[in-house]
Recover the amino acids of this structure.
């Protein structure tokens, strides 16, 4: 490990290393450890040192960091973009569905308030969701049955020959 490296040994497949590559390769070879992205020895590339057990030789591999990590960065960015798009679609669909559902429930609440105030003939609208349509249908059936029972009670009271008295809990006739 004298530190003398030949460009032919450093380069390969037609690659001719420049002074920076030779300096980096020499440093990695002499230090016998790898240099990584962001270190003061190698801010723009990643290099590995691998000694060969059978001789004095060592293999030093250097790769620009964008070439080494570029595909992973692109895949990560693509994954994040897909997640953001899916999240946006879910948000838009969720807001639309909740708006429809809350409008249908507000209509049902208004109908319930009108019936509790004594108005007859009030019917609820179900909207577009199957669940709220079924709920409004059941509410309207209940409201119709209440009206029928109230009408029967009125007729009974009007057509009765007997005295019917209504009292409170203490027995006082009201």
């Amino acid at each position: 490990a004298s530190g003398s490296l030949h460009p032919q040994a450093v380069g390969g497949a037609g690659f001719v290393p420049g002074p920076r590559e030779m300096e980096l390769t020499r440093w990695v070879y002499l230090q016998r450890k790898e240099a990584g992205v962001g270190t003061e020895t190698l801010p723009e590339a990643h290099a590995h040192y691998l000694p060969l057990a059978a001789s004095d030789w060592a293999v030093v591999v250097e790769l620009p960091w964008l070439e080494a990590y570029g595909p992973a960065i692109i895949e990560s960015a693509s994954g994040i973009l897909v997640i953001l798009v899916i999240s946006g679609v879910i948000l838009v669909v969720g807001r639309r569905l909740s708006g429809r559902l809350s409008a249908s429930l507000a209509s049902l609440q208004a109908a319930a308030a009108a019936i509790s105030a004594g108005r007859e003939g009030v019917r609820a609208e179900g909207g577009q969701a199957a669940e709220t349509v079924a709920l409004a249908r059941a509410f309207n059936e209940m409201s119709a049955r209440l009206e029928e029972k109230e009408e029967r009670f009125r007729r009974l009271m009007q057509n009765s020959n007997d005295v019917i008295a209504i009292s409170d809990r203490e027995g006082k006739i009201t």
Q: What stands out?
A: Helices lie at 7-10, 19-31, 65-116, 130-159. The CA atoms of residues 7 and 22 lie 7 Å apart.
